[in-house]
């Protein structure tokens, strides 16, 4: 049975594509959109589930008008499934960087976690995952920005109904 019969395509259009097009049509700068989207994805893959919205909110508050809040939050939303898939790579990177013990991902480890017998090991593995994420952040952010910038330049040029900056708008109103 095709995937679109389950409503995935309409859901993606409604939840991701339509909001993205609304953001672009409102005249945001491609650099700001690329940075904000890269930031949202980067914070969205933070290895502690359930904390990414708070991190994005703090980043928006700290950066103010240097980032585009709706783009950060939309990218965070899109990054949620990726977050879960990167916990183990961040854990392994943190273990490698710190030279710490290898946390075994076995059914026995899960049993220890559930029964509360592995609290020290779990805390150490969380710290390793955070270290791995922290080390990877500049590379993830830079790579995503480099990928997103040409994409947003093209999308803004194609779909924007307003000038992309206040300077352009001022020049257009002065000429007209």
UniProtKB/TrEMBL annotation:
Q: Write down the Pfam families for this protein, in alphabetical order.
A: DUF2062 (PF09835)
**What UniProt keywords are attached to this protein's entry?**
Membrane, Transmembrane, Transmembrane helix
Membrane-crossing segments per the record: 38-63, 122-148
Q: DUF2062 domain location, by residue?
A: 20-158
Protein name (Swiss-Prot/TrEMBL):
Uncharacterized protein LOC109723573
